[in-house]
Structures are given as C-alpha cells and as structure tokens.
Amino acid sequence: MGSSKKNTKKTTKPPNNKKTTTTVTTTVKAGKKKNGTATKSKNPLDNLPDYVQVPNAEEDNVDISDEDLAFFAENRDFGKFLKSMDSKELTKNENKKKMVASTEKKKRATQTIPDPTTAELTSSDEDDYNDDDLEDFNQSDLESLEDEEDLPSINGGSDDDDEDELMISASDDENDLLLDEEDLLEAMEEEPVKKKRKQQEPNASDEEMDYELKPRKVAGEWTKKDYHSRLPIKLPGGKVTQVQPNFSDEEKSDQEEVEEEEVVEEEEEMDESEILVPEEPERKLTKKEYLLSKKEELAQTASTIQEDPEANAGLLKTLRKVANDQNMTIKKLALLTQLAVYKDIIPGYRIRPLTEKEESVKVSKDVKRLREFEKTLLSNYESYIKDLDIILKDKKGREQDPSLVLVAMRCLCELLTTKTHFNFRLNLMVTIVSRMSVVNWNEVADMGCKAMITVFENDESGRTSLDAVTMMTRMIKSKNYAVHENVINSFLHLRLRDELAPLASRSDDDESRGKKRKKQFLNKKARKALKETKEIEKEFKEAEAVVSKEEKEKNHTETLKLMFAFYFRVLKKQSQSPLLPAVLQGLAKFAHLISVDFFDDLLNALKIVLESLDHKSSGGTAGAGTRKRLLCIITAFELLSGQGEALNYDLKAYYSELYGILYEAAFHYMVEDKPSLEHLSESEMLTRGLELMFLKKRQVPVNRMAAFIKRFSVVALNMPSKTVMNCLQLVKRLIHKDRRLDALVQSEDRAASGIYMPYLQDPDLCNPFGTSLYELFLYKDHYDPAIRTLAQSIQQPPESA
Amino acid sequence: MRPLTNEETTTLFEKLAKYIGSNIKHLIDRPDETYCFRLHKDRVYYLSEKMVRVASSIGRDHLGSAGVCFGKFTKTGKFTLHVTALDYLAQYAKHKIWIKPNGEMTYLYGNNVVKAHLGRITDDTPEHTGVVIYSMTDMPLGFGVTARSTAEMKKLQPTDIIVFHQADVGEYLRSEDTLL
C-alpha cells in the first residue's frame, strides 16, 4: 500500500487454521456471500452457530525471530491493543444477526481467493477499520474496485458487501505481508468473526491503516468521464438537461432472496446484456425504489401463499400480474418466485376436473374450500405455464434477452422433473421437447434434455416415459431427423432393460396356472360373495398405489415399439445421418428386448449401412465413417450375443470388415485418442469388437481366429503400449481357449501348406498357419516391462505343453 | 495333356464360381508359383507350371494323373466337380455350412442335409448356391447346393432338406474305383 507500511502484526490466521474453506469470496459482485465460517446452504441461518469455533493456537509452532521481538519492543502499543481484544465478542457470529435483520440477501456467485488469507483479513480488517472509511465508500469507489461489473449493493446490504470487498481487495497485496507475520501472530491470535464495523475498536497507531489495505480509491471525479457520452435532452417541461448514463449494476442492488440460488447467476447474465438506459437524474432513485417495492411485494405474496395456500390462492394472480411487468429483472424474479411457490403448494396428487354429479352434491365447508383452492390453483398454473410458453416461443424477445429465456426454460424443467404427476404434464413436455429440437445445441436445449433424462430415470410406471417418447419421436420425424444426437442419447436412459427381462419366465407360470384351474362350482351366494370381495380387493389395490406389473409392462412395450420403429426408420432411410452412432448405441443396449424375428431385418439394414459408409481416415485417427463402421460391427455382434444365439449366423462380412479396419488402424497414431467423454477411442472400439467376435462366440473357424491373431499382433507393433497390452492379452486368451492355435506359437510341424499372405483382406484365405507369431520376439524387447513378461508368458506358457 | 479351350474354361470357372465366387483368382495367381488347369482324358487337373512341364514328358496312355483332379467333363460338355477338389474349395469357399455331429454320419453316406442337423450357416446365403459342408470342428466334409436361402431356412421343419448332396469325403471309400 504505502511506503509507510510497517511490518505490522496482523491478527490474521496462518494458513494452517482449521477453519472451513468456504470463506469470504473475493469479487464484489452479486453472488453468493459466504460467511467465513458458515457453509453454503439454502437457509444460511440454520448453519450459522452462535459462536464461531476458534481453533486453539499451537504453542509449539510459534517461532519468534529476533527481529520480531525487537519490533515488539519498539511498538508496545500494538501489544496493548491485542491484549484488549475481547475474544467472546469477536467470536460471536455477527453475520447471523445480520442475516436475520436484512430482508434482502444478495448471494454472490463469485470466485474465492486463497482461503487463509481472506479469512485472516476478515478478522484483522475489522479491527482496523475506522468508521470514517466507510463513509468514504460511495458508488464510484465501488465501481473502481476490481473489474467486475457487478457492484455491491449500496443500500441495506451494503455493509456486508463492503466488508467483503475491502477485505478481498486488500488480500492480494497483503498476502506476502501476512505470511511473514504468521508466527508472530499465532500466539496471540484468535479467530474473530466479522463484526459490524461500527463496533470495531480504533486501530493502534502501528497497525496497518485500513486505508493502506484498501486498493487505491479512485475519486469519483477521476472515473467520471470528462466528456458526455450522450447529448443533452429536452425534458417535457422545456428544460434542457445533461443525461448521465446509468450503470446497469445499480439495478443489481437490493435483490430479493428467492429460494433458487441461481437467480443471481441469471442476473449476472442479465447485467452483461442489459442495455444502458439513459435516465434522467431525477428518476434514478425512484426506479430503484420501484424495484425495491416490487421485490418486497413479490416476497410478501410468496410468503403469504406459502403460509396458507388454501386461503390465499387468489394471490397467485397477483404474482402473475407482477410477471407481466416491463422490467426484465422483475419479470425474471417473478417467474422464479412463482416457480418456488408452485413447487411448494402443488399437492402430491393429480387434480382431475369435477364431474357434473360431484359438483351438484352438497359438500362440507372443508371440501368446498379444498375444491376452490384446487380450481384456482389449476387455472393459475395453466396461465403460468402459458406465460412461460409464450416467452420461450417469442423469437424477438429471445434475441433481446436470452437470459429470460433461460429462466423460463429452467422453470419449466424444474416443474416437469419435480411434479411429473401433476396436470398439464403433457403441455410442459410439448414445450420442452419443442425447445430441444434445435440443430444448434444451446443451453436451453441442454437444460431440456437433462430434464427429460431425469424424468426417464425417475419414472416408475412407464406412463410418463411413454408420453415423452411419443412426443420426441413425433418431433424428430417432423423435423426430418435434423436434430442433435443428444436427443437420441436421452433414450439410453430409459428404464426398459431391467423391467422387461424376466418376461419369458413369468408368462410360462401364468399359462400353466390358467390351464390347470378348473371352473369351480359356486352357488349363487358364493358367487355374489366372491364378486364383492373382488371389488374390495380392487379398491385396496388402488389405494396401495403400487404400480401394477402389467401396466408397467404395457407401457414399456409401447415405448419400445415406438423407439424401435424410430431406430429402424433412421437406419433404413438415413444411413448418412449423424444420428447413426447414437442410434446404434441404443440398438445395442435394447436389442435383447425385441423379438428374434426382427433381427434378420436389423442385420440386413446394418449390412447396408456398413457398406455405404466411407473408408477415409482423418487426423491420425479413424474418420467418422470408420467410427460408424466399428459401431455397426459392435452392434451386430451384440445383437447376436444375447437372444440372437438362437440364430446361428456366421457374420463373415463383419469379420472381413474388422480385418480391414485393423490394418488401417496401424497408421493411426492417435488411435487411443478419445474425441469426447461419451465416445470410445478407436482402440477401445477395436478391442471391444475383437472380444465380441472371438471370446463370446463358441465356434469360430480356426483359420479365421489365427488370421486375426497374426494380423493384430503385427499391427500392434506400431501402437501405443496400452493397445499392445490389450492385443497381447487377447492373443493369450484366444490361445488358451483353442488348443489348435498353439500351432502359431510352436514351430514344430507344419500345420498348413502354402505360404501366408499378409496383405490379403480376407481372413479366411490368407493361410495363417503357414506362419508363426514372430512378433513375440520383438515384444520381448519392448520398453514396457509388463508387455515383456506377457510376451514371454505367451511363448512359454506356464503349463509348458 | 492339353490346356483347356475357351469354352471349357468358361464352363469350369462358372462351376467353380458357384462355390468360391471371386476367389478363383487365388487359384491361379498364387504367390509361390503359377498354377494352371490341364485336360487329360476328359478330366481337369490343377497343377503348377513346373509339374506341367514334367508331366508332358510322359505319354498319354501312360499318364495316370497329374496334380489334383478337380472334376471331369461329361460327353455333353458339362463339368462335374469331384470330391478331390474339396481341399481347394474348402479353402476358398464363400458360403459354408457346419453340421452337427449327429448329422455327419448320414451325410457321409451320401444323403442330403436336413434342417435338424444344421449347426451354423454363413449369413446371407442365397438359394441354389454352392456351399461347402464342414463338421463342427471345421473339418471339410464335402460340398453341396443349398435348397433354401438363409432367411427362409428358419421357417423350415426339422426334416426338410436344406442342402443337396453333391460330393462328400465318404466317396473315397464308396467309389474308390471310379474316382480315378
């Protein structure tokens, strides 16, 4: 700070304190404000203890150097101050009081600076601060701090925020300083908590002045532009005034606390995109006041509704009215408030419209109240959803304010995922699905996709999944398959596999039972009694609300049908489509659920696709075409591995394809490169394909196996060591599996006549037994010791035949 | 010993193509030596060029056989493949069928293959093509002509014929005299 800065002791904690790491955040922007001692929580009040835990200083660690002692001797005042500190007072958790007091809580999503120093700063700075300094802080100063756009609030919440900034701003400079003082201070240190500045003691003369800690304050005049960016305007009254550009961040002040923490993130985006509105100086205050009043209104209504939903359902309308406000902030806040309110008050059952008969019946007051409430709730909910829908569909608005769209989308997704059972679920899904249909994947679509995945995974009865899948397939069809593959990937999360598997076994039992049951002779009375008991049982079952297996099965079957129809369509018509990898993955995952009859068609389609794909390679690794081919091959073999074993097909074409791809792979130096988290690397796909082809199958022609072994031991000579490892292990397992392959390793008798043709692309014809695995000798000298041992063990198997 | 005329070559290759398809070129362009077909007493022999030169020094009446006999031409000019060609057919076969152990014996006696004995079959085998028949241990047993395509084979009864018998290794015992 200044040159007069002395080597003062700071009552700061050295980095080895055991305080929690969630400390005061640096940037002084709208974001989550974390108390140095409290952990982040939805309701900060709960987590704040009354007294902050103070770790005891360890006496052993204190190393007091001579210099320091000398310094202390000189500056006795400092020691005096420290002694007079009141530990109790310091450790009292002031923030709790503060949080209770303030109605506006601005949470900041900001980065954290290195924790220890910040923590220390909090304590020390408080002690150091003069009240005077606070008054100096005004708007312009705040702006001049760090470069963030978001500035702290100036009204109510300013105290907290200011503290943050001050501490943080000083932190960077003070880092080095602090570390020196650590040992000194340890003995005398405690863990003071943020105190209200007004209660701080006046600083000792030798301590660092607070003004030294603060970053250089640039006076308002300096930051104020000399020039006017806007021309003077003429007011209605005839006066001509100069216009000051209003900083957008001012509007950030005094944000209401909404339950969602991410409100603030959206507000941040909003800030950046908000247009500077030229305002007349006279109206500046009133706009803020207007914001403030709106927020208070929202908060009031929300809390009233939540207190007693049934009585105050009418207030939902007021919330909606607020949402129609012009101001973007208010709009977003209103939407989010509504979301929070609905999440709380929506009951756990689906409200069905009352029939005529029920309406005419006279009911008790309670029931009437409930019905009224339900009616209002439904109508308001519907209009709310309509509003959200309009916002999402509004193209013009989207350009102007993308964050509003995001907020609306988030509301929709939250409603769908948490209240899937409630009415209007179809409307919600329609909107979300239509948003997901964009080709250029954006955040909105991503959110929608994630919501759908959550819905799939939480769906117990299968009904919701069925609706969702119907809608999605329809949408994709209407868009002519020009959608992003994430949409298809969401299908992979459907819970179909586990549910339908024991289908075969169950049906047999039922059949046998059906045949054996004879019609028992019942007289009239017995029949009547049986009927009644059956009805009662049915009611019991309904009350239990257990999803019946039959219903689940039905839903799942329908869903499967739709999905596979869609997959087939893509396969048959659009073999060049970029959706192909996702489709193939889906097929492989769910193939065991469809009837064996379809396998024929499926294999045919796969073969056609395989042949139509191209053979180029790109960028040192398999090109998109080769990747698709590998996926095709893997899918085909997975199809045949489950139920398809009944089909004794020998997929010769696929073997030849893989044989060819292996050869090309030798030239791909990036064969282990994973293009993205979802996709496998080429080497992994090759290994998987080889495993499926040989290890899972019972009877593979020896010639073919031997040819593959020979080829990939040759090809692996050029590969990185992980691939080599995989290949050699595969070789070992195959040789172990089939004794005849031993001939490749032994050199005793001739197993075949003729010579080996290495460049032939057909594995059956290249006469592999005319050669041996000479490469093992090369692998014995590999740089990787694991490979060396593996090669050795293949050549001389432990059982030593 | 004379080389084949064009028509004879065409007929021969057509017949071979039914079993090995385009792999005929592997029969001719072998990496070690060039092989060729020669006709001797209506039988087609497959031998290397070196052997042709040696065999041509033996008189017509004294030459029994040279190389591998693939088959013979009938009086009307049709070509029949003999079981002696099995080795090469098996090596380059395009469509293969594996039969179960319980079906081997009956096939080796000269009967047709029924669906019940089918172990495995190459994908996409069309109707009326030549297939080579293997045992489950990948030992070539003979060859034949398919009665149905792979897809239709699923719907057949177990007693329906799927492959018509053409030649099998049992012939070495049965028709010892007529083979050569």
Automatic annotation (TrEMBL), chain A:
Ranges for domain Nucleolar complex-associated protein 3 N-terminal: 294-384
Keyword 4Fe-4S in annotation: no
Bias (Basic residues) ranges: 1-12, 514-525
Biased composition annotated in UniProt, kind: Acidic residues: 123-151, 158-190, 251-275
Pfam family, one: NOC3p
Family designation: Belongs to the CBF/MAK21 family.
Protein's recorded name: Nucleolar complex-associated protein 3
Native source species: Phascolomyces articulosus
TrEMBL record, chain B:
Subcellular location, principal: nucleus
Entry-linked SUPFAM superfamilies: Pre-PUA domain, PUA domain-like
InterPro entries attached to this UniProt entry: NIP7_N (IPR040598), Nip7_N_euk (IPR055359), PUA (IPR002478), PUA-like_sf (IPR015947), PUA_sf (IPR036974), Ribosomal_synth_fac_NIP7 (IPR016686), UPF0113_PUA (IPR005155)
Entry's Gene Ontology BP terms: ribosome assembly
Record Pfam families: pre-PUA_NIP7, UPF0113
PROSITE patterns linked to this entry: PUA (PS50890)
PUA domain span: 95-170
GO molecular function annotations of the record: RNA binding
Compartmental location: Nucleus, Nucleolus
The keyword Nucleus is assigned to this record: yes
UniProt cross-references to CDD domains, sorted A to Z: Nip7_N_euk, PUA_Nip7-like
Entry keyword set: Nucleus, Ribosome biogenesis, RNA-binding
GO cellular component, one term: nucleolus
UniProt-listed PANTHER family: CYCLIN-DEPENDENT KINASES REGULATORY SUBUNIT/60S RIBOSOME SUBUNIT BIOGENESIS PROTEIN NIP7 (PTHR23415)
Stated family: Belongs to the NIP7 family.
Job description of the protein: Required for proper 27S pre-rRNA processing and 60S ribosome subunit assembly.
Description of how the protein assembles with itself and partners: Interacts with pre-ribosome complex.
Protein name as annotated: 60S ribosome subunit biogenesis protein NIP7
